[in-house]
Predict the 3D structure of the following.
Amino acid sequence: MKNSEERGGESERGGGGERPKTKDKRSKKQEKQKLLYMKKLIFTLLLITLVLSSAVGQRKILNLPDLPGYVTLKCDFHLHTVFSDGNVWPTIRVGEAVRDGLDAIAITDHIEYTPHKDYIPVDHNAAWKIAQVTAKENNIILVHGAEITRKMPPGHFNALFIEDANLLVADSAWNVFEAAIKQGAFLLWNHPGWKSQQPDGIPRMYSIHHKLIKNGYLHGIEFGNDEDYYPLVLTFCKAHKLAVMCNSDNHNVMSETFAPPEFSHRPMTLVFAKEKTSESLKEALFAGRTLAYTDEILAGREEFAEPFFYQCISVGKPYLENEKSIFFEVTNKSDIPFYLVNGPAGATPSITLAPNSVTRVVLSKKVTAPLIYDVKNVMTGENEVLKVELKY
Ligand SMILES: [Zn+2]
Ligand SMILES: [Zn+2]
């Protein structure tokens, strides 16, 4: 150390010509190092930006097929944020929708219940305004909505496709319904059998519900909400030609609420739209082209459940035949398991078509009746399930 210090000192003290040269060399080296450092910094910053921006960039693929002539939009029309009693910021709902493989969501904060108001100013349009750009950038249809939150009757309702949620403030629930309808809203009756409002969990229609239907104001009912579902809703929807819906009603972080192994997906509504646009989505909802999908249950009108089932599965030609039996395969290319029960006499009484799997079926040659089964987990009525035939 001492030597080099001395040498350094000497050279500084030495010939004048050398001094600037050394300095030049040094500053060049320093500059090079600076440049390298800057490059590294820029690279690191770019990497951070990339990681941050790709955090919501991965869309999960849901294997839920389209229907002939329609695209299947996977939707959740019931979500809360900090702007009512939820615990997440609106843009987070968009990121969650992308990760969950959804096409459309509605943020539906409570109009009449804003427990964070001492910290967050009340503007019923705020969540929609904040999340709009993020939704557009992520190819998510963000439906402008709000939850009309009343005691039963009438209970809670989501007004979807509204223009101004701040106009849905009034003492009388009926006036709020009228204000929503005036804006062209799709009105959805939420969790009609919610135990806080119906302790036995059974949905009931009161005179105000009949009045809503009579006026053409009610367009859908939640068959599924969070972890609950209400078979009776299928009867209501059938009788009054309403859309069968299913939503998460989540107030917290989605991935923590509907996490594996208990859940493979959040509750959602499948909407059969002409194309993936807000206008088509709205048209399909008003036309009632939906199925509810919660846990392993699919529920809705037979006219949609039946073609949807046949889009999910395909039955192969027999690949082996011996004296006693015929062998063939059934492919289920969807994420939904199908539990086939009550098979014809002599045939396998039940067949489970596991999701994204091929199931081998061995059929006795003695069976001559068509292979008609009940699909235990596809509900087409309060006490009805879908009947299907395996044609090999
Ligand atoms: Zn509610
Ligand atoms: Zn809610």
